[in-house]
């Protein structure tokens, strides 16, 4: 099949469909979205540096990527078998652990980035 720019552009339809479905059906996606919005708002308020913005945006992306893969593993596992299956359980646990590690890493680095300027900002008010 020859390369087609039209086909490549149309393939984005699947990605956007996945993103829309993700936010419509996954409660954790909305939790991550709210936290991401809060982090962006805090970054604006604290005037974080360009490098800090890169780190914050990268970490937000990593958390969403982990949650998307977790959701994919859960959906695939559920479509294979509704009955208890030890291998599927382990796969789901591993993918959930990936989300946890990504979120914990993001939170830890977020504290490192946000606490010093937050303390300075609050000291200026008091």
Describe this entry's structure for a reader.
The protein has helices spanning 5-25, 27-46, 50-80, 86-125. By secondary structure, it is mainly alpha-helical. Helix 2 runs antiparallel to helix 3 and helix 2 runs parallel beside helix 4 (86-125). The protein is extended, with a radius of gyration of 19 Å.
Average pLDDT level: 95
User: How would a textbook summarize the main sheet?
Assistant: none
Classify the secondary structure makeup into a structural class: mainly alpha
Radius of gyration: 19 Å
Q: Give the ordered list of helices and strands.
A: HHHH
Name the poorly predicted regions. Answer: none
- What fraction strand? under 5%
Keywords summarizing the entry:
single chain; 126 residues; mainly alpha; 89% helix; extended
Provide a compact summary of the structure.
Helix content is 89%, strand content 0%. With 126 residues, the chain is mainly α.
């Amino acid at each position: 099949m020859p390369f087609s720019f039209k086909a490549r552009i149309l393939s984005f339809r699947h990605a956007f469909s996945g993103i829309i479905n993700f936010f419509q059906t996954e409660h954790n996606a909305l939790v991550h979205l709210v936290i991401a919005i809060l982090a962006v708002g805090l970054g604006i308020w604290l005037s974080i540096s360009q490098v800090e913005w890169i780190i914050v945006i990268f970490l937000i992306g990593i958390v969403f990527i982990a949650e998307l893969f977790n959701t994919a593993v859960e959906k695939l596992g559920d479509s294979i078998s509704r009955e208890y299956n030890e291998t599927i359980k382990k796969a789901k646990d591993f993918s959930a652990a990936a989300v946890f590690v990504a979120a914990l890493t993001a939170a830890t680095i977020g504290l490192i980035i946000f606490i010093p300027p937050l303390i300075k900002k609050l000291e200026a008010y008091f």
